[in-house]
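We emphasize that the prediction below concerns an isolated chain of 391 residues; any contacts that depend on oligomerization or on bound cofactors are therefore not represented. The input was used exactly as deposited, without trimming of termini.
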Amino acid sequence: MQNETNLKTQDNLHSDYRDVICLSHLRWDFVYQRPQHLLSRFAKNGRRVFFFEEPVFTDEPTELKAVEKEENLLVLVPHIAHEDRENAAAIQREMLETVVETEELDDFIVWFYTPMAMDFAADFDGKAVVFDCMDELSAFKFAPPALVENEKRLLEKADLVFTGGQSLFEAKKDKHKNVHAFPSSIDVAHFAAAREPREEPADQRSIPHPKLGFCGVIDERMDLELLAGMADLRPDWQFVMIGPVVKISAEDLPRRANIHYLGGKDYRELPAYLSGWDIALMPFAINESTRFISPTKTPEYLAAGKPVISTPIRDVVDPYGTQGLVEIAATAEEFVAAAERIFARTDAAARQARADEFLAAMSWDETWSEMHRLIRETIGAREKSRTAQAA
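Result of the prediction step, given as a token string:
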């Protein structure tokens, strides 16, 4: 088997692991982002991945549904009957125990994305416990009241903590002894395809230029007044918004003739959409929900060859703004002025060359490899400590 072959090539079998149990608040098929990039690489490198999602409450009987998304990667979705809702934690625990038993998982790590999984997985240990803290979830709209306390428990339990950006690292570094910053990375080849001439998708093709676009989740992190302000200031510019609308009402979205909501798109489709844009936008609100974000779309836009304008998100300002790779603007007027500067540029090729040089040091492959090294190092340290205690 592939994973057996890979394990045999490791320097120290005792500090390796065969399987990954991932406990996630994000659904695998929602938006392809950090969890998918990282967990798919575990699978491709011979580890079996069990991606355990939050429950779906249903009128149907309680059951655990499993779907194989790719080789070595199984998505597990607890479907819990409404009448069983009060026992959801116990049911999920039993489901997880069943997976461990039936799949013979005795050589695994536990990878947390959501602290809320501590309600049913606090006793699951494995060879190491990893908390990939990609966002400050407690600052998000509709965050569960227990999330802060559960994160405190998770930080006490975890052997290793990763953060989704530098600002989040600064917020967590004093709360755990083994914290490492891993900002958003990039699949350069995937998005670089947007630089080549390609036919735009049908729902974008008829929208005239100039096109200023955004792709990502449209939620409380979006500055809707800013978007409306830009559209009003430049009614001849077209604003293309790609992504699902969540946690806010569709009625709250600004409606203008030059704002086009195209809905969510498959990750594979994104280069075709980006290829037709003149400028890529990140009109994030400046609030608690965006205080620690490190948007994946920053390097994705740059890899696609698009000039970028963003609000002053800390992890965008530094390093992208300070290095002149992204224009930073705070108001609709500033966004429009930045866009007009971009349209007037004569040094686009030189700027893109600087962006490419910056992106050359980034990749999800390298991020995963370094995370894997730290995991093995942590497992080795745990086993050494146990051996010393047993002596």
